[in-house]
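Students often ask what a holo structure prediction actually looks like on paper. The answer is less mysterious than it sounds. You provide the chain, you provide the ligand, and the output is a string of discrete structure tokens encoding the 3D arrangement of the protein together with uridine-5'-diphosphate-glucuronic acid.
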Amino acid sequence: MIRDIVAGKIASLQRGEVPFHELDVPELLERNRERITFTTDANDVVGCELLFVCVDTPPTASGDADLSRVWRVVEELPALEGRPVLVMKSTVPVGTGTRVGEGLDARGLAHVGYASNPEFLSEGQAVHEFIHPDRVVVGAFEAADGDAVAALYEGLGAPIVRCDVNSSEMIKLAANAFLMTRISFINEIANVCEATGADVVKVAEGVGLDHRLGPHFLRAGIGYGGSCFPKDSLALKQLASNSGYHFQLLAAVIEVNELQKRRVIGKLERHLGPLSGKKVALLGLAFKPGTDDMREAPSIVLAARLLAEGAEVRGWDPVADAEAVLPGVEIASSVIEAVAGADAAVIVTEWPELRELARDEVRLAMANPLLVDGRNLLDPALTRAAGFTYEGVGRPGAAGAAAA
Ligand code: UGA
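The corresponding structure tokens follow.
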């Protein structure tokens, strides 16, 4: 049983159409169609033993997590019998479980159990990661409620971390904050590489082979975006502030990320001078490949900065419907259309389709063959050999590349 308040989404799911782009989800739904009911009616959940809360928790004006959707779920719970367990999948501040428990009591639903079971899936590979999780975290007030949730995952063979509700909520926030810290760290290393002639791709390889550090989330680029990292970092920072603690490291991680998105502008200016009247193509607009999600996509900041400098901006993405969130940007239907007559093209999102970008057709279509590779997708030496002026992130210039 899947319930949502957005009738349009439920109607399209009922027709067998998935209202977002996510690998393997259409096939998964098709295979299990007979077993899933889609509804907008809150009363339909009567009889369910486990009720997963999967609502979004976007930032409020103060940067705290907006829990209004969570509260709406609690308010709309029908009279439930037996011992159903409300399971929190949404990312929430530490202390939310306690407050939801109080809310259930106030609604006369004290017999409903509560567990925190945070989500660690990433977009674009959610189905694979669901079946092969690194770990499952279950925090509960009552051991039996935790047992009921943990039992669901037993067949997956992943370690199951059992803990209290507060710690479970914190594990989720800390995991995301740590991943972001790694990204901002490698981005700062990349910036120092640019100033000193080192190659961040080699540096990340050499650092990541240390088993204590590991290779993941060391890809330098134009900063993280998405529906989770930006809002979760703010929410954790505010959670700390509200408790009287200044989370300095996280504040720096966020600031580095903001600056990282803007560094592309400096690179373009170094080659083109003032950007007023210059034509710039943004290639890849979604916040990462494999998704059509435009939430907090670096392309939004980049486009706004370029437009503010007076540049003409054209954008292309294979799946994202970006028009509404990129006012003033002309959306092209192909890479060639996006780069036609451009003074520069920026790889914003590393879609596999862009791996073959350094080809004659693209170079000849551009007014000036400048490629700024915001994701280090292309090989610098090969791209330069193909006649492009190439700028990556944290990669040596032409001389350094030749020496490599
Ligand atoms: C992220 C986490 O990876 C998930 O574990 C978590 O469950 C999810 O947030 C969430 O809280 O819901 P997601 O936002 O889908 O998942 O995507 P990521 O693959 O983590 O990428 C986030 C951003 O970081 C992207 O903009 C990506 O381009 C950037 N990134 C990632 C880098 O710049 N460098 C890297 O090395 C890795």
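The first strand starts at residue 2 and ends at 3.
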